[in-house]
Amino acid sequence: MKNILKILFLSIMVVSCEKDLDINTNPNTPIDVDKRFVLTAAQGSLATVLGGDLTNLGGFLAQYHTQAPSASQYLNIDTYNMQTDFANRSWQELYAGCLNDLSFVKQRSDEEGDTGSYLIATLLESYTFQVLTDLFGPVPYSQALLGSENINPAPDSGEEIYMGLISSINQALNKYNSSPVASTVGAQDAIYGAEMDDWIRFANTLKLKMYLRMAYTSQANSSAVLNLLAEDNFLASDAEFNVYSAAVEENKNHPFYDVQIDHLGDVNNVASASLLDFYTENSDPRIAAVYRTNSSGIFRSLDQGDRGSFAASLASAFSRPNIVPNTPVYLMTVAESNFLQAEALVRYSSGAGAKTKYDEGIINSFLTYGLTVTEAQSFIESGGAYEYVSTGVIETDIRQIMIQKWASLAYINNIEAFFELSRTKYPEIVPFGDEDYSIGNLIVSINSVLPGDQTPKTIFYPDNEVDRNSNLNQKQSLTEPIWWDQKQ
């Protein structure tokens, strides 16, 4: 426990000192800081955003939760009316905190010949930039983090960033493989404890995710995917930031719990019918891992954005997210890796082996939620609610995979679920009244301010950054698709 508290204390101290920094603050200014603690701070910054603001945002957009009728804290998200100040905090935390720290760790590791720590920092950097560009579209990348050398970094296109990230990952892997020096950060790596085999598996899984993100674009690369499948060295354990306190303690709890449940009183986020009813109608025991029962001891949901029908109902009348003080923040899970592999096999290997990976994805999802293999088994066996039925029709088979992936990401990685439904269009968004929650359907939020059946594809750049960066122009609409969002 003392080591856990030490990690958290150091993370909080370093992160808090960075919160007022410009994203272009030079991370290379000479300072006598142990890179081990800076790596922990970077991981803490990333976990704070992933587990906090992006868990909240992704939960609305992937329809895991909706705004409670009796409150209005996040009505702007639920009605698709986010403004230009929405992402100020997250952008600053990721650039000025996480990425600046990782740049420092990379430089120091390179100077010391510590190829293991260099690889870890590169992978976390690539993961962070992937989240940024998948959320915002073009963002500063090649010109970012240069300090006074460039105070107005121009954004790179998403395609350029993806190619740059894959190249960066491969370069760091080659550096490590050519001179395999085990990372010296030890237990200060709060994700994998500097176990390099785990980080290499993380690298391969991250690359597979990025290649599949490009599946509907001209940059789709089947040979690269097949090479990764042939190597077969993907996540063997969940990549999780798991150093939070089980007790309710200031700045030591899961970020969503700390803000939404502890400080704001648990009055905003209630279960969306899109997911809760999917679980209910399929008798899925994951429902109790994802949601708490309401004040009457039952699971109860609300159609996305439906405030009018229950205007007087308190949040306690509905189920709410089952996040506790020490819930981990997940970067990627074994289940997600399994579903990625299943999709890749359908797309690029005629579906051979896809069922096995799909079944493993469901089993590992149950395990991540604290359930058992036995509980999962009845769902994937012949006649089970989630039995995989190979049809030979690529999109039909991929739909089966993506519905289960969506059901497995709830409060594990909500923003990833949003990215994937934007990319694949599964679960489908159907008109209100036509939905069949049992098979996995979403609706347009009933209180949407967008015309027609439009939903957000991105969010605005933070106005703080647009105001001070003359090369970053604000986008016109939340409906501008991300570059890989090309499925017709």
Outline of this structure?
It contains 18 helices and ten strands. By secondary structure, it is mainly alpha-helical. Helix 6 (115-136) runs antiparallel to helix 7, helix 13 packs antiparallel against helix 16 (394-408) and helix 14 (354-368) runs antiparallel to helix 15 (373-380).
Describe this structure as you would to a colleague:
The chain is mainly alpha-helical. It has a domain at 1-257 and 457-488: Alpha Horseshoe (Serine Threonine Protein Phosphatase 5, Tetratricopeptide repeat). Helix content is 48%, strand content 6%. The protein contains 18 helices and ten strands. The chain has a two-stranded antiparallel ribbon with strand order 1-5. α13 (334-348) packs antiparallel against α14 (354-368), α13 (334-348) packs antiparallel against α16 (394-408) and α14 (354-368) packs antiparallel against α15. The longest helix is centred in the N-terminal third of the chain and has 25 residues, at 88-112. Residues 1-30 have low confidence and may be disordered.
Topology:
Elements: H1 2-18, H2 35-51, H3 53-61, E1 65-67, H4 75-78, H5 88-112, H6 115-136, E2 139-140, E3 155-156, H7 158-178, H8 196-213, H9 222-231, E4 239-241, H10 255-263, E5 269-271, H11 273-281, H12 287-290, E6 291-292, E7 320-321, E8 329-332, H13 334-348, H14 354-368, H15 373-380, H16 394-408, H17 414-424, E9 428-430, E10 441-443, H18 463-468
Parallel strand pairs: 9-10
Antiparallel strand pairs: 1-5, 2-3, 4-8, 6-7
Helix pairs in contact: 1-2, 2-3, 2-5, 3-17, 5-6, 6-7, 6-8, 7-8, 8-9, 8-13, 9-13, 13-14, 13-16, 14-15, 14-16, 16-17
